[in-house]
Amino acid sequence: MKPNDCSGRTLAFLGDAVWSLAVRNYLVEEGKNKGTQLQKLSISYVNAKAQAAFYEALHEEGFFTAEEEETYHRGRNGNAGTVPHNTDVGTYRMSTGFEAILGALYLEKKEERIREIWTKVRSLQGE
């Protein structure tokens, strides 16, 4: 399957899982091993507000390629369906676009680029 064969929402669905797995791997590798601690730390990376902020910071730096930005717009502009109660539509759409980038990279087997995004986000977090 190729990213262009998928809707932006489908790419975001896949990207959500890719991002969650990257975060969980990192936390376990860092020696975090208490369930409540893992969940709390995970949420700081895997939520609409955080993901929108990550996208915005990376976008402002010109970090994303033109192709990744195009994928972002596909994901952001997709039919959102329902939006979580704890966030606004704009933030949710921005996070969906970020997830779409990750989903497309996964389908393209660009694991190194996913790691680059993860590393950059961690540096933004001061890690």
What tags apply to this protein structure?
127 residues, mainly alpha, Ribonuclease iii, N-terminal Endonuclease Domain, Chain A
Describe the structure.
The chain is mainly alpha-helical and about 130 residues long. The protein has a single domain (about 5-125), classed as Orthogonal Bundle (Ribonuclease iii, N-terminal Endonuclease Domain, Chain A), CATH 1.10.1520. It contains 6 helices and no strands. The chain has helices at about 10-30, 35-45, 50-60, 65-75, 90-105, 110-125. Helix 1 crosses helix 4, helix 1 crosses helix 5 and helix 3 (about 50-60) crosses helix 5. The longest helix has 22 residues, at about 10-30. The chain is globular.
Short description:
The chain has one domain (3-124): Ribonuclease iii, N-terminal Endonuclease Domain, Chain A (Orthogonal Bundle). Helix 4 (66-77) crosses helix 5. It is built from 6 helices and no strands.
